[in-house]
Amino acid sequence: MRKNSVKNTRINGEVQRVLAEIIRGGIKDPRIAPMTSVVAVEVAPDLKTCKAWISVLGDEKAQADTLAGLRSAEGYIRNQLARTINLRNTPQLTFIMDQSIAYGVNMSKLIDEVVHSESIEDETVESNENN
Fold first, then answer.
1. In CA terms, which of 28, 42, 83, 105 is 20 to 30 Å from 124?
2. pLDDT, tens digit, for every residue of 85-112?
3. What CATH number does the domain containing 30 carry?
4. Dist. CA 63–CA 106, nearest whole Å
5. Are residues 94 and 105 in the same domain?
6. Strand-by-strand arrangement of the 92-97 sheet
7. H-state helical runs in 73-99
């Protein structure tokens, strides 16, 4: 099975959906932040390993605690995944913190600041020309 085959794409989508449900409703670990989302999932073509990119709304401590909680609950998550999805092999899970949403929010703030400062400069230039 090729990495980008239709079958692998369907498996990635299904694992992502089920993983999000398990994290949202099945885990009672207080370290896992309530605003945790599964951004992307990449299951290896041989179904042995799975990388899951996780995004957490919160500070760095909340992100680290959530990652630690998910890693400690990996056995439970894998068991629930095996019960829900009928695959030949249940993949070994690896959780990776995804910083792309935080990066996007930060870039958006920087762009807004630049636009705001330019509009203030334009207003001062116009008021100086009028005087």
1. 105
2. 888 888 899 999 887 777 777 888 899 8
3. 3.30.300.20
4. 17
5. no
6. 36-43, 49-56, 92-97
7. 74-84
